[in-house]
Design goal:
Strand content: 5-15%
Number of helices: 13
Shape: globular
Order of helices and strands: EHEEHHHEHHEHEHHHHEHHEE
Strand order of the largest sheet: 3-2-4-1-5-6-7
Helix content: 40-55%
Radius of gyration: 21 Å
């Protein structure tokens, strides 16, 4: 997996898992750890969230051993957001501790479970600087940015998600894979207005603007929304990979995108293990057999994408 590239650091690969609170980062780390372990990769999870005190996975390195959010809030009389910013600045100031803990893990694949506050990845510099030091320590990382897929059902929220994703990509400065998480809940707050590919590939956003213009509240902000859509499309960087952690095919698609982004090359053993895993999965009773299952309810008719009416059960 790794090779000596100079100094005391071997080349190691991994993912930094980021995204808003509640987007499923910890669940993703648990699922990806189990998935990679079945493939034969030696995986360790690093908890980078000082507020995460209930870890469902075995944690090799826990930053809360260095600094915990509750202690900072009690000692400095800070709120949750201010306390978390202080915690990450404290980690940045004590990188020797983190470096020593990571060295103990040896030749492994790393999953960094990061905090959820959006400002850490859009304009605050401590987390970005930590990632930069990881790169100096010969980590080849991909930023895996998770957002809730059900935001696709609301055009205003989806545009907001696109802006956040774009800002994060520009600020973090790592190879980046955007993930639409919880695909089994994508229609939780309403049916999609367009084919699923419209949201994953971020196609012509003028169609979303037309939907917003139909809402009296957003109609007066049409010019603002139009400019936001232009910024997103001018950069042409944002696209998404759909994910359901309970579906092995979906996890495989995400893993291939991540490995391609950071240059990880797996051998024949992993490929054989993956093929065996997928063969064993045939006929298994998954909650959601394929992330594209939701797309089966969206068809193209007469050259235009329309939404099928949901059939009464």
């Amino acid at each position: 997996m790794s090779s000596q590239t100079g100094g005391n650091h071997a080349l190691r690969f991994g993912q930094v898992v980021i995204g808003p609170p509640g987007s499923g980062k910890t669940t993703y780390c648990q699922g990806m750890q189990e998935f990679l372990t079945q493939l034969g990769r030696r995986v360790v999870v690093v908890n980078m969230d000082p507020a995460n005190d209930r870890l469902p996975y075995p944690c090799a390195v826990d930053v809360s051993e260095l600094v915990a959010l509750d202690d900072v809030m009690d000692g400095l009389k800070l709120g949750p957001n201010g306390g978390l910013l202080y915690c990450m600045e404290y980690v940045e100031a004590n990188l020797d501790w983190l470096e020593g803990k990571l060295k103990e893990q040896g030749d492994c694949y790393f999953l960094f479970d990061c905090p959820g506050q959006v400002e850490l990845y859009t304009h605050q510099s401590s987390v970005k600087n930590i990632f930069s030091h990881l790169a100096k320590w010969n980590f080849r990382l991909t930023a895996v940015h998770l957002v809730d897929s059900h935001y696709c059902a609301d055009p205003a929220k989806f545009i907001s998600v696109l802006c956040t994703s774009l800002s994060t990509m520009l600020h973090v400065e790592l190879p980046h894979v955007n993930i639409l998480s919880k695909m089994d809940l994508i229609e939780r707050y309403g049916k999609l207005a367009f084919n699923l590919d419209f949201y994953t590939e971020v196609m012509d956003l003028t169609y979303l603007l037309d939907h917003l213009a139909a809402d009296p509240f957003f109609k007066k902000f049409h010019q603002l929304n139009e400019k936001l859509a232009e910024v997103i499309q001018d950069y042409s960087l944002v696209s998404f990979v759909p994910l359901n952690v309970q579906d092995k095919e979906s996890m495989t698609q995400v893993l291939r995108a991540v490995d391609k982004a950071n240059g990880y090359c797996f051998g024949d053993l992993e490929e054989r293990n993956l093929q065996a895993m997928m063969s064993a999965a045939v006929g298994a009773d998954f909650q959601f057999n394929s992330t594209l299952g939701v797309q089966e309810r969206y068809v193209e008719t007469g050259g235009k994408t329309v939404v099928e009416e949901m059939m009464d059960l």
